[in-house]
Specification:
Strand content: 25-35%
Number of strands: 8
Radius of gyration: 12 Å
């Protein structure tokens, strides 16, 4: 059985300052931790499990990342 690429969505409406929080090349890992290309690691402040495999991760700056329930690979996946 092949793996399904996770669908990553960001909510920039809630992003403080109204700009995209994570620069090009940033990755999200299992548990919602984000790593930027310059090595900054940003853990989520709040994690919500929706009970259907999808997750929402809320960050201290007010941004949010949603995943669709597919497994995020150990190397993370790019935020789009």
């Amino acid at each position: 059985m092949g793996s399904v690429k996770p669908n990553i969505r960001t909510n920039t409406t809630l992003n403080i300052g109204g700009i995209v929080t994570y620069p090009y090349g940033s990755r999200v890992y299992n548990g919602g931790t984000v790593q930027t290309p310059n090595g900054q690691v940003i853990p989520p402040a709040v994690t919500i499990n929706h009970g259907n495999g999808s997750m929402s991760y809320y960050y201290p700056d007010g941004s949010r990342i949603d995943t669709n329930g597919s497994t995020i690979p150990p190397v993370g996946t790019f935020i789009k």
